[in-house]
Design goal:
The chain is mostly beta strands and 174 residues long. The chain contains no helices and 16 strands. The strands form 4 sheets. A 4-stranded antiparallel beta sheet has the order 1-2-3-4, with no helix packed on it. A 4-stranded antiparallel beta sheet has the order 5-6-7-8, with no helix packed on it. The protein has a 4-stranded antiparallel beta sheet with strand order 9-10-11-12, with no helix packed on it. A hairpin with a 4-residue loop joins strand 13 and strand 14.
Length: 174
């Protein structure tokens, strides 16, 4: 779920994204993307949808034009959900998106919002990436684990983007 103004955008396992008026609950719009919706994020008037079909994750860029979602671009990405089948996450910071996968993330430029471009794929030895939070600088705070399932330690790690995703420090929590 992501919110833009008074509209919530809801992703379904069926591969549909529905725009719903939050006050009334009325469905305002809907589009299909051909894969299980993993995550949605909003940047200005743009709605970015991360979906996972049979051939891997895809990032879809939709422009919200008077309440109607207009597909402007699609980008195929590397990665998978892993054995834990944990949803892949999508996080925006400035003119870039971080699209999680089991073993790391894809860094995507949205400098041209209609045409997302892969900057780099970061692969790590961790197979349980859950979420990231950019710090506004070169560092990225990541919740990751050696396992893609829910067992084992769950680590909080700090990654340096300028060093290509190298761990610079980490901590554990139970």
């Amino acid at each position: 779920v992501a919110v833009q103004g008074a509209t919530a955008f809801v992703g379904l396992d069926s591969g549909e994204v529905k725009g719903v008026a939050m006050e009334s609950g009325a469905v305002l719009s809907g589009v299909g993307v051909g894969g299980r919706i993993q995550d949605i994020t909003v940047v200005g008037r743009w709605i970015y949808v991360l979906a996972n079909g049979g051939d891997g994750p895809r990032l879809h860029a939709f422009e919200n034009v008077s309440g109607s979602l207009q597909l402007q671009g699609t980008l195929s990405l590397e990665g998978s959900e892993g054995a834990g089948r944990r949803r892949l996450r999508l996080v925006a910071e400035d003119s870039q998106l971080f699209a999680m996968h089991t073993a790391g993330y894809n860094l995507v430029s949205i400098a041209n919002p209609a045409s997302p471009r892969l900057v780099r794929e970061v692969l790590t030895s961790q197979f349980g990436w859950r979420h990231v939070s950019p710090t506004g600088g070169e560092l990225l705070l990541a919740a990751a684990d050696p396992n893609s399932t829910d067992d084992g330690d769950h680590d909080l790690q700090v990654y340096s983007q300028t060093l290509g995703g190298v761990v610079v420090d980490y901590a554990y929590w139970d």
